[in-house]
Amino acid sequence: MYGPVPPLRSKIVRNLILAATVAAALHAQAGAAEAATCADAAHPGGDWQGYGHDYSNTRHQEKETAIGPLDAPILSPAWALKTEGEISGTPAVVDGCLYVGTTAGFVYAVNADTGEPVWTAEVPDGGVINASLYVSGGRVFAAVARDSAPYLIALDQADGTLLWKRQLDSQPGSETPPLASRWAKPSD
Question: In this structure, are residues 87 and 100 in contact, taking their beta carbons and an 8 Å threshold?
Fold first, then answer.
């Protein structure tokens, strides 16, 4: 009754197991989400590096020609981003990614066209980001407010890894200067 399995039945069982294994692998591969990337860097609207647009605080984007004052009443959200904490600074938009910091101490890089997260980084020593980020020279600069020990960080623009951190003050009651762009230099 429990003798050897006929060769045909053994081959069918082996093929079924192989087919199930391949199907499971293909399903897992199809289900794995591809990491989001930034939008096309050659966006016709141009970049907005940080608060006020540039070091001169011009608040003007000369490359934006598709949206004007008469369009404001008919604009609607293209996407929304769920974050840890609130966003209180002006977003920076550079090379197809939008960058924001939050009051919970996170920096987000998202695809500027779709809102899909590209990377998220948490500030290294606690604190909040309650001002605009500044993006320049392949780095994302964030001024971090922390009582008696505010600091500035530079993150890699491509993946959010911490490049450096500098404490800005150590006086009791000191917080952070409001603009990372005033401390960040492209040569840093």
Answer: yes
Q: Of 136, 149, 116, which is closest to residue 180 (Cα–Cα)? A: 136
Q: Tell whether 154 and 81 lie within a shared domain.
A: yes
How far, in Å, CA of 48 to CA of 177, rounded?
20
Q: In sequence order, what E strands does 58-185 have?
A: 92-94, 97-101, 106-111, 117-122, 134-136, 139-144, 151-156, 162-167
* Beta pairing class for 106-111 and 117-122: antiparallel
What's 160's domain CATH number? 2.40.128.630
**Which residue, among 184, 183, 180, 185, has the nearest Cα to 89 in the 3D structure?**
180
**Which range marks the domain in which residue 175 is found?**
69-182
Q: Are residues 28 and 97 in the same domain?
A: no
Question: 109 and 21 in one domain?
Answer: no
Please give the Cα distance from 80 to 60 (Å, whole number). Answer: 24
Beta carbons of 51 and 33 less than 8 angstroms apart: no
What are the pLDDT digits (tens) for 6-16?
554 444 434 43
pLDDT tens-digit map of 78-123: 999 999 999 999 999 999 999 999 999 999 999 999 999 999 999 9
Euclidean distance between CA atoms 117 and 131, whole angstroms: 20
